[in-house]
Amino acid sequence: MKGVTATSDAAPAAPTGKTVDLATLTADYEAQDGETLTGTLAGNYKISIADGATVTLDGVTINGVNDMNYSWAGITCLGDATIILSGTNTVNGFYQDYPGIQAAAGKTLIINGTGSLTASSYGKGAGIGGVNNVACGNIEIQGGTITATSDAYGAGIGAGDRADCGNITISGGTVNATGGEYGAGIGGGRRGPDNGSCGNILISGGTVNATGGDKAAGIGGGRGYNAKNFSSCGTITITAGVTKVTATMGDGATNSIGAGYWGNCGTVTIGGVEGAITTSPYTYDPTAQAKPAATVAGERWRGRRRHADVCSDHDEHEAYLDGWLQRRGAHG
């Protein structure tokens, strides 16, 4: 890992349920279960979330500096973590290798709530997810309005540069994710000679807009290292439970949803239909898709019935007219 890691003793943990104003901190801080973080971080301190904790972000601003002396994410999850969003929150990573919010390897980060979050990195880290050349865990987004961006080589949501990430699940909220150069919007970052894979991606709810960097998918794989060292991702599933999903591939990419250039991935299934998507931008809107066969058949039946009614009225009119002409001729 690049850079020299600066360390300092974490401040004593506040009582569970306490609101912590980041503007008042004078040292690194580890948030505990039930706490609420608020305010603007005034110093270059490392903010972490304890393993297993649920923490609320309510009006948080963390503007990390791109300095190798501060080699950490804007927020570092030390294990399983749940972040509840309230109000407007902005979290930018510190040194360029690090993400806005780091999901611990082998663990799960859950993001939910009604607030908003803008998360970004200065370079090789993901917006939300992984560090350069360091694996990250699973990421689940259940609610909130989220904008996640990598400046270079990482995914918007997913892996950092030359690193692996776990599964990514989106079941609600509004998500806008943009990958850095060679990074997917949602999924893998740029592959290195040894690492560069993403787990399964499931989008079952919410509104999603994902844009890949050069040669990367909007949703799926980042660019591979070369023709012998492919990037990879697991299965990609988008269900009819979503509001709308839009994916845009980067320049020189092959798929908006699927594998990146010099990459491969598992089965892509969208609304029950299998196959990678090469159209870009591509939008899946379940309400705009073909109607179920039963509905179409019903409309055809009603159409035929209306046609039959019209024909019946026409026949009755012709019979009346013939009779009137005959009666007029008889009395002519």
Shape: globular
Radius of gyration: 27 Å
Number of helices: 1
Total DSSP E strands:
30
Strand composition percent: 25-35%
Largest sheet report: 18 strands, mixed
What is the percent of helical residues?
10-25%
How many domains in all?
2
- Spans of 5+ residues with little confidence (pLDDT < 50)? 1-15, 290-321, 324-332
Q: What do the pLDDT scores average to?
A: 86
Structural class, from helix and strand content?
mainly beta
Distance between the termini: 109 Å
Secondary-structure topology with pairs:
Layout lengths: L18 E3 L7 E3 L4 E5 L6 E3 L3 E11 L11 E3 L3 E6 L1 E5 L8 E2 L5 E6 L2 E5 L7 E2 L8 E4 L3 E5 L7 E2 L9 E3 L3 E5 L7 E2 L9 E2 L2 E3 L3 E5 L7 E2 L10 E3 L2 E3 L5 E5 L8 E2 L4 E3 L2 E3 L2 E2 L7 E3 L8 H38 L2
Parallel strand pairs: 1-3, 2-4, 3-5, 4-6, 5-7, 5-8, 6-9, 7-10, 8-11, 9-12, 10-13, 11-14, 12-15, 13-16, 14-17, 15-18, 16-20, 17-21, 18-22, 19-23, 20-24, 21-25, 22-26, 23-27, 24-28
Antiparallel strand pairs: 25-30, 28-29
